[in-house]
């Protein structure tokens, strides 16, 4: 029997290398206008990644009129994440929605093409910039019925091209029972129309993946509430929606955002791609709103213990954990090994690349 040779040190090497290189991650949001896509992007990264609101002014989120991408570098505990968020104009808003998915699928395929063209160069870059969409969050309107034919057609096309995570948008408009029944009906629709959303069963690699991903599949589509305004609830600050009846809690703003040193830092960068428009710039790491800025009504910075993420109100934390904390690398791997690979094979078979 051989003795110890210290092979596990390779893990440290990988970690150091990954920290040096940083990560790239690209998210797209798709759905009808007014469902809270832009708001959710801000909630997800606990910062104004999508719009710039001058301190003290709580302005309504501007309507997204064209497909826009913005790239930010987020740094947390020495780990750099180059994040590109692509916001899309409301799809299916027209009277004639024939082929309304074309601009969105066109954008996704354009990023694969861009990567392919770099990859097949004889002298190619050591690191090919990755603008491919790793995850597309699909917003289902909270009708309480089932998926609309338009959703089904779009999802069928989208799932063949990219990782899709569907969510029930504006879930505060449904009761808990309605939400659960709606979720089950959507799951049934997905099954009967063979729509494989992320995490796809066929890519579970082992029993551990299967156990974890089955739990996730059971909860998908997550019921989310978009909120990028902070409020005080029992002495704790939460991102929530203030209504006449109370505050619907989206999630707690934890210490990272308010911490400054060592906390979450966001810098705006122009998007990598030439055809992308960067109309918005991120504001570095602080979100302001009327409540917080009003004298005598300062919302104190939250500490980690204050992290009350109210799952009774909204399943936003499940979505955030899936996208950022537990499956980020897997989303990238499936994008590269499955979706991009399919695209690459088709294009190379056309033989006139
Ligand atoms: P988008 O068109 O899908 O990007 O939607 P926006 O993010 O621009 O949001 C449209 C409006 O809906 C804004 O006034 C938001 O404050 C509001 N909104 C966003 N998310 C929610 C939600 O979960 N529930 C409710 N009730 N309103 C929301
Ligand atoms: Mg929008």
| Average pLDDT metric | 76
Distance between the termini: 53 Å
Strand content: 15-25%
Low-confidence residue ranges = 52-58, 252-308
Level of helix content? 25-40%
Number of helices in the DSSP assignment: 10
Which ligands occur here? guanosine-5'-diphosphate, magnesium ion
What does the main sheet amount to? 7 strands, mixed
Strand tally: 10
Shape: globular
**Helix-strand sequence:** HEHEEHEHEHHEEEEHEHHH
Look at the helices and sheets and give the structural class: alpha/beta
Strand order of the largest sheet: 6-5-4-1-3-2-10
Round the Cα radius of gyration to an integer and report it. 21 Å
Give structural notes.
- With 353 residues, this protein is α/β, with parallel strands linked by helices.
- Helix content is 35%, strand content 18%.
- The protein has helices at residues 9-21, 37-44, 102-119, 149-159, 176-192, 207-219, 255-259, 290-293, 316-326, 328-349, and strands spanning 23-30, 68-76, 79-87, 135-140, 164-168, 222-223, 230-233, 236-243, 246-252, 265-269.
- Helix 9 (316-326) packs across helix 10.
- The chain binds guanosine-5'-diphosphate (GDP) and magnesium ion.
- Guanosine-5'-diphosphate binds next to helix 2.
Sequence-ordered SSE layout with sheet pairings:
Blueprint: H1 9-21, E1 23-30, H2 37-44, E2 68-76, E3 79-87, H3 102-119, E4 135-140, H4 149-159, E5 164-168, H5 176-192, H6 207-219, E6 222-223, E7 230-233, E8 236-243, E9 246-252, H7 255-259, E10 265-269, H8 290-293, H9 316-326, H10 328-349
Parallel strand pairs: 1-3, 1-4, 4-5, 5-6
Antiparallel strand pairs: 2-3, 2-10, 7-8, 8-9
The structure holds guanosine-5'-diphosphate and magnesium ion (MG).
